[in-house]
């Protein structure tokens, strides 16, 4: 359940975000209960994941990416929990009422806001996982200090290999391990390997040549049918020409992705690393561009000497362990 946010942190924005979130919760309910109950099932516990997988159905789990839809109402966390959400990414690409994001240069709160500290406490009480991907480094340390349960970084990389503000430093990785949490390595090329100056120049030149500009969802909705058709055709040309840029200036590939897994394991340990693809948020790299290529990751891990037990931890056992521990922490705190 991803919900964007308006620049202003006001009640009108919070109301719109709440309504957008509810639409997505309802979509998941329809998918699992009405459209394809024979193929998938909404699960709300780690044991439910295992049980569903044994039936050969897809286990659907809900997370909220961006705490903005909470607004200033702590009770909404419980409502979202009751609807099936089991983790919340505290922020997205901009500061919100909960905390500072890793994106903007200037802080708003200096980490967690006072309200954000109450959000952490309430999520701990409910047994809901706290996700620190997207948050600023100061927010990360505030959460580590405040949380009474292990935390997750659902889709991040390693700063030591790629200096991107969405990645975690070795110090953060070690702290996450001490906390008992898990970092899920993201399969998003720009986080894993910085674009070279030459590639950035080539991309800028291509966009200028084609007159291609990225558009948001609201921009697309405002277009006429003819304008959308023209945009789609232009995007097809852009994608085709992008192959030339990729050939000259290669982006991150499967090897680079597993390099990040390797590094995180060396720093944090095998029990604290997983995989978070972000396929619906820009993720996808050469060799692991979508779920159909997931086996390539396993093959590369085997090639590097990881055992079957270790690979199972990376592919989900570690996250399920954290989920169970967060549930137990909630039981103690309630």
Summarize the helices and strands and which ones pair or pack.
Layout: H1 11-35, E1 40-42, H2 46-54, E2 58-60, E3 62-65, H3 75-82, E4 85-89, H4 114-126, E5 129-131, H5 137-146, E6 152-156, H6 170-179, E7 182-186, H7 189-192, H8 197-210, H9 217-222, H10 225-248, H11 254-268, E8 273-276, H12 294-303, H13 308-333
Parallel strand pairs: 1-2, 3-4, 4-5, 6-7, 7-8
Write a compact overview of the structure shown.
By secondary structure, this protein is mainly alpha-helical. It has helices at residues 11-35, 46-54, 75-82, 114-126, 137-146, 170-179, 189-192, 197-210, 217-222, 225-248, 254-268, 294-303, 308-333; strands at residues 40-42, 58-60, 62-65, 85-89, 129-131, 152-156, 182-186, 273-276. The model has no long low-confidence stretch (mean pLDDT 94).
Explain this structure to me?
Helices cover 52% and strands 10% of the residues. Helix 5 runs parallel beside helix 6. The protein has two domains: 260 residues, Metal-dependent hydrolases (TIM Barrel), CATH 3.20.20; 52 residues. The longest helix is centred in the last third of the chain and has 26 residues. It has 334 residues and is mainly alpha-helical. It contains 13 helices and eight strands. It has a three-stranded parallel β-sheet. Strands 6-7-8 form a three-stranded parallel β-sheet. The two termini are 26 Å apart. It is globular and about 60 Å long. Helix 6 links the parallel strand 6 and strand 7.
Please describe the structure with a list of short key phrases separated by commas or semicolons.
334 residues; TIM Barrel; 2 domains; 13 helices; 8 strands
